[in-house]
Amino acid sequence: MTDKKATLSIEGRADTIELPVRTGTLGPDVIDVASLTSKGVFTFDPGFTSTASCESKITFIDGNEGILLHRGYPINDLAQNTTYLETCYLLLNGELPNATEKTDFEDLISSHTMVNRSIEQFLSGFRHDAHPMSIMCGVVAAMSSFYHDSLDIADPHHRKVTAHRLIAKMPTLAAMCYKHYIGQPYMYPKNHMGYAENFLHMMFGTPCEEPNVNPVLAKAMDKLFILHADHEQNASTSTVRLAGSSGANPFSCIAAGIAALWGPSHGGANQAVLEMLNEIGDEKNIDAFVKRAKTKTTPSASWASVTAFTKILTPAPK
Amino acid sequence: MTDKKATLSIEGRADTIELPVRTGTLGPDVIDVASLTSKGVFTFDPGFTSTASCESKITFIDGNEGILLHRGYPINDLAQNTTYLETCYLLLNGELPNATEKTDFEDLISSHTMVNRSIEQFLSGFRHDAHPMSIMCGVVAAMSSFYHDSLDIADPHHRKVTAHRLIAKMPTLAAMCYKHYIGQPYMYPKNHMGYAENFLHMMFGTPCEEPNVNPVLAKAMDKLFILHADHEQNASTSTVRLAGSSGANPFSCIAAGIAALWGPSHGGANQAVLEMLNEIGDEKNIDAFVKRAKTKTTPSASWASVTAFTKILTPAPK
Amino acid sequence: MTDKKATLSIEGRADTIELPVRTGTLGPDVIDVASLTSKGVFTFDPGFTSTASCESKITFIDGNEGILLHRGYPINDLAQNTTYLETCYLLLNGELPNATEKTDFEDLISSHTMVNRSIEQFLSGFRHDAHPMSIMCGVVAAMSSFYHDSLDIADPHHRKVTAHRLIAKMPTLAAMCYKHYIGQPYMYPKNHMGYAENFLHMMFGTPCEEPNVNPVLAKAMDKLFILHADHEQNASTSTVRLAGSSGANPFSCIAAGIAALWGPSHGGANQAVLEMLNEIGDEKNIDAFVKRAKTKTTPSASWASVTAFTKILTPAPK
Amino acid sequence: MTDKKATLSIEGRADTIELPVRTGTLGPDVIDVASLTSKGVFTFDPGFTSTASCESKITFIDGNEGILLHRGYPINDLAQNTTYLETCYLLLNGELPNATEKTDFEDLISSHTMVNRSIEQFLSGFRHDAHPMSIMCGVVAAMSSFYHDSLDIADPHHRKVTAHRLIAKMPTLAAMCYKHYIGQPYMYPKNHMGYAENFLHMMFGTPCEEPNVNPVLAKAMDKLFILHADHEQNASTSTVRLAGSSGANPFSCIAAGIAALWGPSHGGANQAVLEMLNEIGDEKNIDAFVKRAKTKTTPSASWASVTAFTKILTPAPK
Amino acid sequence: MTDKKATLSIEGRADTIELPVRTGTLGPDVIDVASLTSKGVFTFDPGFTSTASCESKITFIDGNEGILLHRGYPINDLAQNTTYLETCYLLLNGELPNATEKTDFEDLISSHTMVNRSIEQFLSGFRHDAHPMSIMCGVVAAMSSFYHDSLDIADPHHRKVTAHRLIAKMPTLAAMCYKHYIGQPYMYPKNHMGYAENFLHMMFGTPCEEPNVNPVLAKAMDKLFILHADHEQNASTSTVRLAGSSGANPFSCIAAGIAALWGPSHGGANQAVLEMLNEIGDEKNIDAFVKRAKTKTTPSASWASVTAFTKILTPAPK
Amino acid sequence: MTDKKATLSIEGRADTIELPVRTGTLGPDVIDVASLTSKGVFTFDPGFTSTASCESKITFIDGNEGILLHRGYPINDLAQNTTYLETCYLLLNGELPNATEKTDFEDLISSHTMVNRSIEQFLSGFRHDAHPMSIMCGVVAAMSSFYHDSLDIADPHHRKVTAHRLIAKMPTLAAMCYKHYIGQPYMYPKNHMGYAENFLHMMFGTPCEEPNVNPVLAKAMDKLFILHADHEQNASTSTVRLAGSSGANPFSCIAAGIAALWGPSHGGANQAVLEMLNEIGDEKNIDAFVKRAKTKTTPSASWASVTAFTKILTPAPK
């Protein structure tokens, strides 16, 4: 992958410094500066805008071109042809699951959807009107205590189980935050439901009604999850990676990422999705919404998402 | 500060790129790479070991030489001649406080030592044997909910009040975590006590005894706080800065930093201090401990701390 | 409505005072004394037995004649031909609902049956053997806090929503009080059930059994609700009106009314109903009970209720 | 007391009705209309503005003249020469206490200041931002459950003990509501403190500081309590009396009164006092405040209070 | 039953003492020493290994011969032909129930399966990793408070109701302890399920899944309950009897027995059963397990159980 | 100690059985029957009235003669010349402590007086009117969970620490039960107070008053503790021993003993003491009470206690 070199000469310094250049199949040249510190030189990059800290084998994103690839698959292919859990499997394992792997993965995630009852205790410590991102950050951080003793961060299997737990429990926690806010009882996950269906059930279901999730809404929700599955090295991802670089507990690191995501200059896309969902409201409004979404200027951060979204929801000509 | 240039040439690329070089009064040359991305080039630096993301006007650290300067003052001068709160004032304001400013600052911090009663509710959700760093991370994240509505992150005064709250409440939270662990009642802060004295009171006092903190231990504790006041751009600090770069809530960002600090390859120095304190146990053991600390090989991460510590606690020849 | 006059002369006072007289289509003459205070005269009426404080367009009651009219409909017509919710609609709107209005109203009330989870917290503060009226009074008063900020007492729509909430949530609260007393888990309302059926389900159902409410008992319960829908200006109603006259929160005012209703010289009828229900126990006992109720001397306060009740439950001759 | 007669003739009615007139030593003539109902006539008086429902042996108030007498003592005499507890004793017993009676009464009230720990449980059910009047209403209503079983409302001694409990516990409850609001720990009453001093201690004291109540503020608070000790038959008092007329639990009836007091058209004076206290803030501001209070137009409802207040706080010429 | 005598002569004592001898239809001679104390003599029997304190009409056990009779029925007959509740009925009443009695008894036990909600409060006081026997002991002791006031220990009916409550609630409590340990929500009993099925549902069911108990496992569980229904006068039984001999509350006495059962030298058989169940895991493993159980040396204490168990589970030759 | 033999011959049995006889320095002959079971013979002794299960080196009691010796010291000597903690030391170690041992033991017990905060959680699960013996039984049983993991019942030091914990924590628990009953806050132990003084402080002190225990009452309480320190092998002691014989957790075994003590035919003496204390009420009543106690017939069970009590409290002639 690397066969080029860059040469750096600094004024008032006799020697020149040779640095390896990594050339990807996609994207710009990348100069490896890791060896600079041993030569008594640092680079300075406020906000790390020019500095990559890892090679991503997972995601390629080019916001300007509206390209978002996961493991090489264009996001709109994924959104049209897979479920969110299949996309998760792809991101985790590098390949889409076959039929058996898919079912096994769905069962695996289903078996981890519940959260320890103590989580209810945490939630009751939050004021009813606490910001949901504050609650998510605190609750996910608190979850680190439940799985810390049995966690060997150096063991790949342990790390994988942690990923499964996070995927499975996040909708449960998010729904609990919402129920705490509106003062309704928490709805337990229903393991026979799909991932997005279950999330909507836990969000909007009540013990007064039989479970009854609108399948169109569930499908749209699943698409939205796919669109947000990974966005490469943004502020929240970088925070998770940086916190995790010291070998810290993965739940805490995700909490750190949630903290970063909360910031108004980063998580806006996130809030926008919820507001989008809110705005759609009913199946009959989808077309109108998509039309409007296509014409209105959207913040660049979520451009890829919205572009892909319009492609998915526009019915293909028959 | 910058009057030199570096020149970068990349194999297979016709042009050369000129980059400004920043030369500090202390330390190595720093090449500003922020403009690289506009030329279609990235640097690659796993762990950010060669990349600085900010200019620190606060701290200069050179672990190899055992140098740690805060605002230009050597750490052992600070440890011998100031209190922890004076050092905090110095870090926040650039100058040590005069007598009036010192008293005002102490009163200010005293007035913020209590935490909302809901914090007890959070704590009761943690298992008795949860890791203290997990609890600290969760609780500090949760605190973000109490001050979010009234916080304008763009207002310097709001940011300063948040700093004061964090300095004031951290010992209270830490002591509550410990009391939760051992099943004892929480001890409220006593505003007439000094910062370190108060911390020890909240940690080891009980409602069965009159407050009675060993002044030698309190003084040693205060020195230990000074030694840990700032360590420049380590993993936890960088995590806080990165999370905060999106404008997120400061309590959440500090929680993110705590997550990073938890990691075994970073927070070791931290645990070492507690174990050191544990090991000293009694005033009469200090000399022996210092002698041993001087001779034994300590982990490099806490080298500066221990070097400075031995200087402080060794009685000056009379 | 008023075209007569009354003339009042007071010994030792030169002038006579002319007062308007209001003559209803039913009932005695009513002298309007509101202007007296401006003439330096007060009336004195301990217990307000001779003083009406409002014109009721809703209810006409004549206990001696066994007449109870709501919006002009005799209570036994209502009890035989309508449901409790239809009667509520009548009392609120002046007319019985048509089929659509009925369904809409039932759906509306169903959507308000749940109470905030914090209510469970209040209940747990009560001793298991606390008097149910004490609990109802405290809990309803506490509910005022949940809807106060969004309530504009001057807005007719807000007032109407509050009425709907009170109708919908009262059975839930009453059943929760009962469950608290016997130490069983609270049963959530089931929105597909009828009003009285739901109440009985929440009272006597358990999570150990499938919902299974005796329809005869549910129907009888519904009749009993109709019979207690309104009793004009008794002590509890007057208390609600008096408390409300200052613009206070409607939940608090209803709590005030519950306090008044608790008193032994007023709420006796209320307790009697519960005991009546208790005594009936099983479908097969209804005939015997009605026969006995017809012959036995009942306290005059609930005379209208029992008279109407016997008429309803006596099977019409085939 | 009654030796005059009033004669009432109603248009279209042959007979005239003779009614007794009660003439007080102070105030307007009062016509006893209790017998009207037996003649088939009602009076109509929305808001009961012209109708007294009892003879008050306790309080005479004439807002227009700025006169407020308790048991014949002008309020400003009471405020200048007695404590609030002496005034309570006066209201309850008809005479001011001698030295022994005063001490005994103070000891008696001190022994009832604590509230059952379950009250903390109720409070934790309220949202942090619940309106304090909502909390007071709910909590006082809830207290009815603690003393109901042992209460014989027909026993004068039981009624008196209830009055003592209400006087003693009300400041404790009010302070608990405030502490709940700001998230601070509840401060237990200190029995060696005076009534107003204790209230301020429970409101503003914390476990971080030794008890330290400003005596000037305590004295002013005590005066404010005196000024609000009784205001005759206003909406809240009438509500308490009406609710109580059915023999209901006295705590519930007071809760009913609190509901009435909450209303914006009645409890304004009440809020004004708290705001006044807030505004004074410091001893040095009293003179300025009094001066301003004298000149500014105050709402008529609290006129008597403020007039009396200025008389008390203006230092007598030496 | 007694027609023999034993004669005791003590060295240095002139008289001989005559003692009645009780001869059972099964088992060794039993000398009645109750009268010895009146002769100034005691017997000494550490651990009461030679001393019976009662005549058991219920159970005959001879561990060496592998015989265990309840009311004369061999345990393997009971295990093969009855349910656990039938065996309970037998132990309580002396005879197996007929069809009606069986149904009535099952309904009776079903109606007592729930426990007071306060029990959840107790459980939340236990650490997540508390030993289950510690929890059972504490919780059962605590239950004594719920039924003490209405309990007349001298009334046979009251005693019987207590037995029914204990049989009905014990599985509920045991399952709650388990759920507390793993942090899952408590599952309410389902009254339409069989005794053992219900226990397994409460143990391993979750609100995420429809109730779904493996009938083979439920049947095996029922057999295991039968095998442990009574073991005559072992340490725990004797503790219950001794504690009960003072007329103490039956729930407390059972708690005392649980304390004794906890001890490693007594409750081993009990733990062995759970481990056995754990080990079997799946229907298909039963044969292998039974074969192994037959050959391996098992602790003598549970010999009878395992012998009987192998007989039951070995399919009869067809 | 044993040099005599008893000879047992059973009708219809050829051989005679020889049994060793143990003769104490005090009390009746004791025949060792432990070997009987190996001869195929049992003794039968309902209530174990003739059977001792251990040799007590601690206590000799002869209720008929009013003799109660602990380690050879008459109880009235102990009550007059020692404190309760000295008597505990004597019972545990065989000898009274010297001055240093006494202080060390008092400090040791003081350091164990607090109980884990979770205990408050248990208590809150009990109804306010639960029987105190039920609460004590449940709470002590629950405490077994806190010390189980670190307890090696075979280690004499662990057993001793458990004894110290039980002595130290029992008054704290008893006082907490009482405070739970009356709804007052729990009072923490004060380590500078004596054992009985501390108990009375925790029982009757409140946070509203400075600690202020009547020293005469404290001294009397201490005597009462001495009188109840040990009563040899009564039902509760035997229950503790029997439960403990299986190696069970000591806290659970003491809970078992509390269950036995609750029984009306055993714990009567216990209740009598509390009522005695209640009756004395004030220092000035002691003489009269003692006089009355001397003349009135007391239940035989507590005879020794009351006899000793009168001897202690009667002032010696000067």
Explain how this protein is built:
The first copy, chain A, is mostly helical and 318 residues long. Residues 297-318 of chain A have low confidence and may be disordered. Chain A has helices at 75-81, 84-93, 99-110, 118-124, 132-147, 156-182, 195-204, 215-227, 235-244, 250-262, 268-280, 286-295, 303-313, and strands at 4-10, 16-23, 29-32, 41-44, 51-52, 59-62, 67-70, 73-74. In chain A, the strands form two sheets. The first copy, chain A, has a three-stranded antiparallel β-sheet, with no helix packed on it. Helix content of chain A is 50%, strand content 11%. In chain A, strand 2 and strand 3 form a beta hairpin. The interface between A and B is large, with 90 and 90 residues. Strand 3 (29-32) of chain E pairs parallel with strand 4 (41-44) of chain F, so a sheet runs across the interface.
